[in-house]
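Person: At home tonight, work slowly through the protein below, taking as long as you need, and write a paragraph about the fold.
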Amino acid sequence: MSTQHTQNPLDTQPIGKIFLRYLIPSLVGMILMAVNLAVDGIMVGNKLGPVALAGVNIAGPVYTVFVAMSLWLGIGGATLYSQSMGRKEPERARFIFTHSLVLIGSGTLIIGFIAWMFHEPLVYALGANDETAPFAADYMNVFLVFGFVFTLENAFSIFVRNDGNPNLAMAALVTTAFSNVGINYMILYVFDMGVREIAFGTILAATLGLLVLTTHFFTKKSNLKLVPFRFEKPLTVKAFTFGFPSFLAEVGISVFTISHNIMFARLAGTVGVAAFSVLNYVHGVMLLMFLGMGSAIQPIISYFHGADETAKKRAIMRIAIRTAFIAGAACFLIGQVAATPIVHLFGDFPTEVKEMATLGIRLFFIAYFVMGINFVLMSYFQSIGSVAVATWITAGREIFFMLLFLLTIPFVFGANAIWLSIPFAELAVLAFILVYLKRNRIVFREDKGL
């Protein structure tokens, strides 16, 4: 076993090749999942109508909770896993893997069961009315009972990527995305079924993705083995701590959506909310792309940190920051040139909605210049165990600074200034990060220490 791990590709391959080996599968998988979610919504809306779609969206926070749980313990456990592998402690790494999966699976089952017992008041607490409640309940109840499949798939995917098999993690995401679209198409357009069956279809697609991931157990290079479980409180606390920035990032997405909907409704009415809904779909794809960049460097940085490979950490960060900036600049240019065609993709809206959404894309896309860099830096600090800094970056860009600008500049400059709250927040956070790096003499240049 020891000979196997001395030949880890992270120890032998060139830095550029390592980065691409993790980046490309991560980006492809994340973007496909974003497209999958959009197509799913389009099919439900077209076949079952706006009330059914509204019901599914109302139940959406249940999906978000399961994602947040799997990221919280998944990223936290996987970071500790890769650090152990970097220290050449494969037995400890296997225990961390087993410990994390047991906690994620059991935690999801317990929370799901408790929520299911109070499902009726929960549906109305999420915003349903008598019209949407039946659809929301049908969708939500399936997730509450079987959502552990989804969380295990998501967490296992993170561990497979951290165990040196990013291509298999991507293949599982591709399987989940395409099978979800195919299964739900059959459910809606062939068998003429409804929302409850759509939820079962999503769980079935996740099960197929999980089956793809289990093939990693049978590869010669796999270190992922289930070992006897024993509860270890210090490890649990550490995993929760290390994964907290990822959990907070998921919460921040909800804060972003809710706060912007409220502000647009107050200052621009239905037109503003409709325009924001277009931007939010597009932003979801971009957000997952940048999240993919952070996910790509996490296993690498965690491994090199455990192995005390300072120069390699520095080299990966240089490449990652440049890549994030180039991708962000490309996204900004696309937004300026193609804002109108992008809006038209979502339907034939009234002129005032189209005009506001077009302007919104052009203003909001300024954020992408630095958003990717902030994601990469957050992932770096999380991967080396500087959780306080990673948490501050996440809370600053998605909650504190965003709300600060959202609750001030629109009242001075009007409703269109709402689009600038995220760009301003991203720039403010980057400025604070640069000050922190300078004060702590953390640099990523070749000629200085990290």
